[in-house]
Amino acid sequence: MVTRVNPVRLPFWRLQLTAGCILATCTPVLAAEGKSAGPSEALFLIQIIVLVIVGRLLGEAMVRIGQPSIMGQIVGGILLGPSLFGLLLPGAQSALFPDIDTQKAMTDAVAQLGILFLLLLAGMETDLALALRLRRAATGVSLTGIVIPFTLGFGLGELLPANLLPDPDARLVTSLFLGTALSISSVKIVASVVREMDFMRRNVGQLIVASAIIDDTVGWVIIAVTFSLAQNGAVDLATLAQSVIGTIAFMAFSFTIGRRIVFEIIRWTNDTFKSDLPVLSAIIAIMGIMAIVTNAIGVHTVLGAFVAGILVGQSPILTRQIEGQLRALTTALFMPVFFGLTGLHTDLSVLSDPSVLLLAGGLIVIASLGKFGGAFAGAKFGGFSNAEAIALGCGMNARGSTEVIVASIGLAVGVLDERLFSVIVAMAVVTTMAMPPTLRWALARLPMRQEEKHRLEREAFEEQSFVSQFERILLATDHSASSDLAARVSGHFAALRKMPVTVLDISGEDGEVAARETKAGREGEAQQIGDRVRDTAEIAAASQDKVAGPGEDDQVHVSIRSRDGNLEEALAESAEKGHDIMFVGIEPTTGDVGRYSKQLAAMVAAFKGTTAIVSSRGVLPKEDKDLRILVPVSGTERSMKAAEFAFVVAKAASAAITAVYFRDPAQATSLSRVSDARNAHRAAFEQLDQIASFYQVKVEKVAPQGSAPELAILRHARKGRFNLIVLGVSRRAGSELSYGSVADTLLETADRSFVFIET
Length: 759
Description:
Blueprint: H1 12-33, H2 41-64, H3 69-80, H4 85-88, H5 90-96, H6 101-124, H7 128-133, H8 135-159, H9 171-183, H10 187-196, H11 203-232, H12 237-272, H13 277-296, H14 301-314, H15 320-344, H16 354-381, H17 386-395, H18 401-413, H19 418-444, H20 450-464, E1 473-477, H21 481-495, E2 501-505, H22 519-543, E3 558-562, H23 567-576, E4 581-585, E5 590-591, E6 594-596, H24 598-606, E7 610-615, E8 628-633, H25 637-653, E9 656-661, H26 674-695, E10 700-702, H27 709-719, E11 724-729, H28 741-749, E12 753-758
Parallel strand pairs: 1-2, 1-4, 2-3, 4-7, 8-9, 8-11, 9-10, 11-12
Antiparallel strand pairs: 5-6, 7-12
């Protein structure tokens, strides 16, 4: 669920006044600093402040007119540069941004770091699962959308007069940069517009984003290789081979062994330290190391940062809070500084030269028509309608941040001069600002197909489902029979979305379980529980199709953690680390005088998440496919959530499942008539059928008459030889742990294994 915060509506004149006040306030400082010949820290801070505030204000203004905020930051830099500020007040502009190498080096360092953070964030926002799911159609659209504008841009570079080239001897590399700048789409801008229009779940919307993802990924590889060529100034086959082979090897290592390493680093850091900051530091370190590696193999650091972002974004335990902190840092500081400096380097006065103006116009036309035509052709070859192909062509025609970064790299290595740089930036601004209105127009004309409607209904169900809210499992174990059952159930539950599982060994010196084992023995038994979880999940994933799983890797990550100190504190800390559901498989489950054991009650109270209490009773089959699951339903929200939980386990285990209707005690007074009760169980079964249909599970439905709910449940469990009862419960207020009369009675009297799942 995305929370939208309405921006504060400030008149545009106030934005101008604010920017003017900033410059006026800084004037005395600038005058003083201008007397110094060396670099100034105060001037550096003033530059950063001005770029951040002006970029933020103009970015806000752009958002209000339906444009990406990045455009405001670029425009802000252009206004602060020689195009306007330098034209009107050249003295003040040169004082604020002096042409001193040592001073420029300070802001350039921030900008270069900003490029890495931007690519890290772009990688984290890259939905690889979406790209893989739509790989056939998206690859066709992406390839034609890259090849055609790249060819046109490369051809334009080869035909440019020598006087427009920074180095006529390096024409080939300049042509490669021009072709690359024209061929890539900006995933960030494309996705934001599609999301803004609520088209992210539509077929065409997903295809646009998936194609842009492939565009971006291929584009950064091309940029990395082109950068290697640019450093040598000419095409050398040995250098080219080294760059290509090095890039392939880096990508192969990153998405296999490197992926595991990144996951382990993030998991270990998250579980070891109490604060989120070490995880943030680890992510930055990963980005830096991978950027250094790509630099060492002769390609640009942006590739390393981008791949690092993809791997970090795929981490199963990356919390929304950590991702939000990184996004906030990048958005608040690095984006305004980088794009502002890009605008500063852009001198629109070069357009007064007719030849440069003609080049700019030609570049905009070639970029727009080439990208649109390429994507349109790819869509038509893929069997899409004209309306869908037009939407794809419009959607892929956004450049923005990507082209600006490409141009900045080209300027830095000397294959682009300030004229070509300014032309590319102008092209990026024009094409990006034209994309949102054209895409909105195209998407508004698209009809919805029947299969698309069906898929959207399924996705809407999944978004609001009980199971989809969980991301990380905590399994509390004491090596008992209940621990083994909890491991089996949690393994099936984890298999659905590849949720990582942390096995917490709670046996220890001050627990209720006797400390009869040595520490080594306890660690060995905890490892066995972890292996049980992993084996169960792998068998479940291999035995049938996965339901709505985000990843392509069938393996569930399982980590073992020993109890350290106070158990309640350990559970509270686990919840803070992102564990949102806890399976408790400990014995005894009941206390001396009935009810729940003191240890169990303390654990439920300490864990700030959902708890599933698992108790092993009676004889359980060795094979999970022989499980017979009984789920009591009453039509209440908690019983339907429990039913969904049971369906997930039944689906993963290929087990039989039956739903038995019972009248919740709270409903008894409101359903006095027989017809009302009959309608109630019919309504409950209709809801049940919807959930079962989503998970593709066959369920038997039974509605026994008479008797108390707990007696009806136990009677049916014995009659049908069921060996696992799944009951939805809600915690009752009071000094002692209670889940209501039905659950509490089953706790004391049930001779079948059960799972009480909090809802």
